[in-house]
Amino acid sequence: MERRLWVHTKGSNLYPNLYTILVGPPGVGKSAVLSQVERFLRAVPDIHVAPSSVSAASLVDSLVLANRKIIRPNEFPSFVQFHYLTAVASELGVFLPVYDPLFMNSLTKFYDGEHYEERRRTGKVNHLKIEHPHLSIIGGTTPSYLNSFLPEGGWDQGFTSRTIFVYSGEPVFTEIFGDESQYSELEKLYLDLLHDLKSIGGLYGKFSWSKEAALAITEWNRAGLPPVPEHNKLTHYNSRRLAHAIKLCMVASISRSNELVIELEDYQRALDWLLVTEINIVDIFHSMGVSGDSAAIDDCWDFIFRMHTKEKKPISEHRVVNFLRNKVPSHNIMKVIEIMTRSGIIKLEMVSGMNAYIPAPKA
């Protein structure tokens, strides 16, 4: 939809670009989905797809090249120009290898579609202006990468508040060879979907709201957008939930018809997408926690369990400390042992007046 379709809210246009990141452990099918997304995008004429790996400067250069000019004879305006780029990052770590504040701030600005201007000095001063730059991102990553990528306070920044994180931890079963009789059906489905995407790619204009849809989203907004996610990492995301919902309403409407009317069913569908996603997003934070001390606790329990199984006696504290000193900072060693004891993961026993430990059954 780029900047060709929009809704008018609060005195300005809201465009349907999204930052969407699929999150899950390896093997759940993120790359399989994203490869199909990229296949579709590259088959639609005039869609500009970003390189897999970019810097802040090269992203700006790619946006400059992603120039879109639309001529509409006998319409107003008759000529429309903007710069729109879509990034498909099947591995977010390739697109965003490190947390660079300059790069992240650029992503925030390009999400909002504001005027962009910069001066570069490379032997001579280059004055660069981009009118109406806009960016969409769909990518995939693991919770552990998010944990290592985002700095302390990263969830309070502009990029994460503008991003919809879609989590699944369940792998999808697929047959090794598949059913050859379905290949022709799948290819026909692909061609039908591609036809629809090309049709959407030729549309231009403002969405209108049916009375029922406008009333429903107005009442939801007045009620405080319930249910509001309560996790502290989502505080800044919550301030953008209404905008996310409106964008998803446009997506739901255009996937149903080319009429550019948001009906009640489109609003209900969009809200369902958003709320289901928000229920599951907390699982990302739970999965991200399996690192640092949490990983050391699991490794330590495994060490005590194996030694106890082999030797049939409690494992002395000095051996546990020696094991942990290569896993966590020295000041955290006794804290990890205390957490394991208090949580019942291991049990303390006294052997010759010295602390020793045995493993408790682990669920």
The Cα radius of gyration reads 26 Å
Distance between the termini: 48 Å
Could you give the count of β-strands? 15
CATH architecture call of the largest domain = 3-Layer(aba) Sandwich
What's the average pLDDT? Answer: 90
- Helical run tally: 14
Helix content: 40-55%
Instruction: Note the beta-strand portion.
Output: 15-25%
Could you tell me the CATH topology label of the largest domain.
Answer: Rossmann fold
Description:
The chain is of the alpha/beta class. It has 2 domains: 5-288, Rossmann fold (3-Layer(aba) Sandwich); 293-359, Winged helix-like DNA-binding domain superfamily/Winged helix DNA-binding domain (Arc Repressor Mutant, subunit A), CATH 1.10.10. The protein contains 14 helices and 15 strands. It has helices at residues 30-43, 56-65, 92-95, 101-112, 143-149, 158-161, 183-200, 211-222, 235-238, 241-256, 264-288, 293-311, 317-324, 333-342, and strands spanning 5-9, 12-14, 19-23, 67-71, 79-89, 116-121, 125-130, 133-141, 163-167, 205-206, 208-209, 261-262, 315-316, 346-351, 354-359. It has a 5-stranded mixed sheet. It has a 3-stranded mixed sheet with strand order 2-1-10. Helix 5 crosses helix 11 (264-288) and helix 8 packs parallel to helix 11. It is elongated, with a radius of gyration of 26 Å. The mean pLDDT is 90.
